[in-house]
Amino acid sequence: MYEPYPVPELAREHKKFRYSSLWTFAKQDLRLLAFLLIIGGCIGLGIGYFWICIFAAFSIFFALQLRSLYLVNEWISNRPYDVPPNLDGIWGALLFNVYRAQRQERIVQAEMVGLIDRAQSSLVALAEAVVLIDESHQIEWWNPAAEKLLGIQAADRGRNILTLLRQPSFIEYFNNIDQAPDGLKMKSTGFDEHYVQVKMTRFGGESRLLVAYDVTRMHNLEQMRKDFVDNISHELRTPLTVLSGYIETFTDQEDLNPRWKRAFDQMQSQTRRMNALVNDLLLLSRLENDKKIAKNQIIDMPSLMNQLYDDAHAYNVDYGHELNLDIDSHCDLIGSDTELASAFSNLITNAIKYTPKGGTVTIGWHDDSEQGYFTVEDTGIGIDPKHLPRLTERFYRVDSDRSRQTGGTGLGLAIVKHVLMQHQAHLEIESKENRGSIFKVVFPKERLYHVS
Ligand code: ADP
């Protein structure tokens, strides 16, 4: 921590200089010289050695000036922060001006140091961890919270942050901070069973400010929510299977009273919806929890596209749309075939569901050697742009009634989003109300496998 220099008060003796001009001080020297010359002249005339006494008067004046010069030099060299020696004449004025300029500078410096101290002590008091990292990724400064949450110790000053926080997810975030504006949630390296949200900002070129805060409570709540949904979905599965089994048996009976037939048909369609909901919830929770699902299979895209196209035909029976398949890429995909097939098929069934009868749905696979594009284009009801940012949220529906009528669970696009996240892909949606939509899945180059 910086020690500010003491700022001594201006010497009282110097106050007389404050408003005087340089001529005032020069006059003091001239007066002294005149005084010495008169005295020297009188003595010289008296004893008959006029010029010798005048010379002696000049010498005394010169010696006094040399003494002042010596005192000035001594002050500047040995004790520049003390009050300067009290000198008359031009030397006194010079000293005073140097002293005043220096004092002003020390006041500014003291203010700056005070400001730095205040900033530092507020950072020290923060519950959030703050770490300053220099251009060469070395730890420059940190606060006590960083010791607790990130396990940084005194010996780590100057150490590369990537040798301290070595989790692959952190290294990836460190190298691409612009791509994760919300930062990264990771296990605390200093505090067992705790989680921290880490956020980094660049400043002054390549230096970085890292801020981390404890999100263990939020993490635990999130985990509780996931476990709850997972458990309840599992628990609902068995009773639902039993119910739908019996309902199917009753519905299939030929001698069923028409009044009951309608009721059983409705029960059957509702149990199917519930089944779909439970299956989607289980799939979502598996996607969230299980990060190790195989994602490096080479997926034969022409074959997958044809499979999806055939399934679309089966689903399209009630809608009678014109279905098109458009493949102009020689690339395959690297990923998990079951997950991607389920995401693609969600997009296709949506396009069919949300297009009034007799429309057109086109499924496409393209690439521009930089990225791969799976597209589903429809001539359907479209989506008002204001809904687009929230469309992939769970249970977000533009029109709940229509979604229910079509048997939608409200989870389809949330599943798509999760599958794509696991493949470093993203979804782009273009849509015009009553004109149709294009859902485009964009895969990065690393996910493309060039078929020779
Ligand atoms: P749902 O099971 O309700 O279809 P999704 O998550 O698949 O749930 O879709 C969310 C909402 O997005 C739907 O309710 C629908 O309003 C809208 N949507 C999805 N795809 C399309 C599409 N191709 N055309 C128009 N609206 C769509």
UniProtKB/TrEMBL annotation:
Keyword ATP-binding attached: yes
Catalytic reactions of this protein: ATP + protein L-histidine = ADP + protein N-phospho-L-histidine
Transmembrane segments: 32-64
Any one GO molecular-function label of the UniProt entry: kinase activity
Main location: membrane
Localization annotation: Cell membrane
Keyword vocabulary terms for this entry: ATP-binding, Cell membrane, Kinase, Membrane, Nucleotide-binding, Phosphate transport, Phosphoprotein, Transferase, Transmembrane, Transmembrane helix, Transport, Two-component regulatory system
Annotated function: Member of the two-component regulatory system PhoR/PhoB involved in the phosphate regulon genes expression. PhoR may function as a membrane-associated protein kinase that phosphorylates PhoB in response to environmental signals.
Protein name per Swiss-Prot or TrEMBL: Phosphate regulon sensor protein PhoR
Annotated organism of origin: Acinetobacter entericus
